[in-house]
Amino acid sequence: MRSRLCQPPWILAAQGELSQLKDHLRKGDNLINKPDERGFTPLIWASAFGEIETVRFLLDWGADPHILAKERESALSLASMGGYTDIVRLLLEQDVDINTYDWNGGTPLLYAVRGNHVKCVEALLARGADLTTEADSGYTPMDLAVALGYRKVQQVMETHILKLFQSTLGPADPE
């Protein structure tokens, strides 16, 4: 069995092994944004596994949250898929592309909807996620919520759409 100190930085990030990850990164070697064979960086792995302290550390150390893996997976999409709302918010603060799509047309919002992650859906919509984007399957986020029977997610999106209409139309004319 390999010692944790011999583990690559991606595994350490996914496992939240922060002290060992720090030791690796202090060695230099430009490991902070170095991808594995799938194109996943330590930040993408930490985001996918909900390791918020590791995500914070990596961002503070200069990890690039805009990197896409080989099949266009992003830290934001994988955090959304896992329902890690705090990580989603951290990444959105880094001005990542909220509507980035992966190999099958999946966006962070579509993944949050598919996972029935209400808080992630709310966070993404609050920052301007596109409700009209279709995955390769032809489903929009609303289509997906309805098809899966996720009423709360559907209600969140309906409320968001209503607010968009109200802000576009402005106050009612008092005739």
What would you note in describing this structure?
By secondary structure, the protein is mainly α. The protein has one domain: Alpha Horseshoe (Serine Threonine Protein Phosphatase 5, Tetratricopeptide repeat). The chain is 52% helix and 0% strand. The chain contains ten helices and no strands. It has helices at 9-15, 18-26, 42-48, 52-60, 75-82, 85-92, 108-114, 118-126, 141-148, 151-169. It is elongated and about 60 Å long. The N and C termini lie far apart (78 Å). The model is unreliable at 1-5 (pLDDT under 50).
How is the main sheet built? none
Q: Provide the CATH topology.
A: Serine Threonine Protein Phosphatase 5, Tetratricopeptide repeat
Poorly predicted runs are 1-5
Structural class: mainly alpha
- CATH superfamily, by name, is Ankyrin repeat-containing domain
Q: N-to-C SSE series?
A: HHHHHHHHHH
Class, according to the CATH hierarchy? Mainly Alpha
What's the helix count?
Answer: 10
| Total E-strand runs | 0
Shape: elongated
Report Rg. Answer: 18 Å
Number of individual domains = 1
> What is the averaged pLDDT score?
88
Question: Layout of SSEs?
Answer:
Elements (H helix, E strand, L loop, with lengths): L8 H7 L2 H9 L15 H7 L3 H9 L14 H8 L2 H8 L15 H7 L3 H9 L14 H8 L2 H19 L6
Helix pairs in contact: 1-2, 1-3, 3-4, 3-5, 5-6, 5-7, 6-8, 7-8, 7-9, 8-10
Q: What would a concise description of this structure say?
A:
The protein has 175 residues and is mostly helical. It has ten helices and no strands. The protein has a single domain, classed as Serine Threonine Protein Phosphatase 5, Tetratricopeptide repeat.
